[in-house]
Amino acid sequence: MEKEVNITYETLFEILRREKSRKDLQKLPDTFFIDVVSYLNEKIMFVKQKKDELFDAEEREKTEKQIENIKKILKELYERREKKIIDMALNKSRTEHAIIDTSALLKEEEQLFNSLLKVLNKNRQDIIMNVLQGNSPSVKIEEKEVPKEDVKEEIPKKDTIKVEIKDFVQKFIGLDLKEYGPFEDGDEVELPAEIAQVLINRGKAAKI
Predict the structure, then answer these.
(1) 184: Cβ contacts below 8 Å, ≥ 6 apart
(2) With the CA atoms of 45, 49, 54 and 60 taken in that order, what torsion angle do they form, in degrees rounded to the nearest 10?
């Protein structure tokens, strides 16, 4: 187990410097995140306690600035380690028998590594391994959902629909090349479903 490190602003800065300057993931204490949370909360509590003390205004502002810088350090540290973990998972997935040293992973980071490796391995098997063997990829592609407003009203499966004419309709030729009409307001007629639906949609008729 890594020797315990006393968390301070200076040690956090040094930890980030090491992570930036070295290629491999750097070893941290097992309780690093817990220790950092405790340290950060102490700083925040200090600011709250000094909020109403006028004589400590300068010290309070200094601590507030330090808290802001600590958060920036932690965010950059996390993102640099995150990138290294992604690279580790990629290397492990691409080379099946590769020996990847995961000893520097914190327990919170092990879950990220294992999840990434699982997804990468599955996609590699489902896509490229199938293609190399002359098979289609077995990845399920989700169909794009069509917005409700783009869904047209379906024509009833019934062959004909009886409607009441609501407005004068001139004689016309239907899709079946037959003549229909003219129809007067109030006429009740049975028409092919496609034609009836067009008249209904245009307000020229109503279904009975």
Answers:
(1) 165, 168
(2) -10
Domain that holds residue 92: 9-132
Give tens-digit pLDDT for 89-122. Answer: 999 999 877 789 999 999 999 999 999 999 999 9
CA-wise closest residue to 197 among 189, 207, 187, 188: 207
Instruction: For the chain, give the longest Cα–Cα distance.
Output: 97
Q: At what angle do helices 57-94 and 32-49 cross, to 10 degrees?
A: 160
Smallest Cα–Cα separation from 2: which of 26, 25, 22, 28? 28
Q: Would residue 3 count as lying in a domain?
A: no
For residue 16 the two structure tokens come to: 């980030």
Same structural domain, 59 and 106: yes
Rounded to a whole number of angstroms, the distance between the first and last alpha carbons of the chain is: 82
In this structure, is residue 138 part of a structural domain? no
